[in-house]
Amino acid sequence: GAVVSQHPSWVICKSGTSVKIECRSLDFQATTMFWYRQFPKQSLMLMATSNEGSKATYEQGVEKDKFLINHASLTLSTLTVTSAHPEDSSFYICSSMGQWAGMSTDTQYFGPGTRLTVL
Amino acid sequence: SQQGEEDPQALSIQEGENATMNCSYKTSINNLQWYRQNSGRGLVHLILIRSNEREKHSGRLRVTLDTSKKSSSLLITASRAADTASYFCATRGGGNKLTFGTGTQLKVEL
User: Fold this and answer.
1) Is the pLDDT of residue A105 over 70?
2) Contact B88/A112, CB-based, under 8 Å?
3) In angstroms, what separates the C-alpha of B110 from chain A's closest C-alpha?
4) pLDDT for the residue B1
5) For residue range A44-99, what is the model confidence (pLDDT) as tens digits?
6) Which residues from A are below 8 Å from B52, CB to CB?
């Protein structure tokens, strides 16, 4: 199946700093990327959806100025947590959908996640 | 709010037994998907069932879908310790957005 990578896999930062998380689709063109956050022992909550070359669409309650999403190419999307605070500590997961011979466009492929800890 | 509710929240079985997890959802869907997540890791896509399908198999996995009851079940047969993970159902409606259920934590003991 398609491979999605995330970098870094974990990050610890001080309160007030900004953190950038990268999501790459390694072997297909991701026309749509999704960013989720997950708190311990809870389900995934969609934060935003981005289409390549367009502005991201944020879910209700997600601050677009705090969680900056850039989807500049078909293989890379980034999530920047600006002025991070301890309550932003969470597991952030990206996923991709795209067009590739033999791959269903109904399937989302997920990255391995990034554990963010804000001190 | 969450689209799906999963039941049970936690399930503990012995290796070799079957595990059944249920998912209920609230609105019309195009398809329903099941994912697996090992602790602290990303999600692995297991199986997708479309709204016009009633049952689907993949290896030791069997998924059913009852759109009249807005429910789905995932059966793992002959479970193994390596099946220990959290399992999530996710539904897709008219757009591309997936909405995840609350998840079932499965523990398979030797």
Assistant:
1) no
2) no
3) 23
4) 45
5) 999 999 988 888 999 999 999 999 999 888 889 999 999 999 999 999 999 998 87
6) none
* Pairing label, strands A57-58, A67-73: unpaired
With beta carbons under 8 A apart, name residues in chain A contacting B101: 43
CB-nearest partner of B100 from A44, A104, A106: A44
Whole-number mean pLDDT of chain A? 90
Look-up of token digits 């708190």: A39
b/e burial code for range A27-44 (CB count within 10 A of at least 16 → b): ebebbbbbbbbbeeeebb
- Report the chain B residue with the minimal C-alpha distance to residue A94: B42
* Phi, psi values for residue A58, rounded to 5°: -95, 145
pLDDT score at B3: 61
- Other beta carbons less than 10 A from residue B21's beta carbon: 24
> Per-residue pLDDT averaged across B88-107, rounded?
89
CA distance A76 to A94: 11
Q: Which of A41, A107, A112 sits opposite B42 (nearest CB)?
A: A112
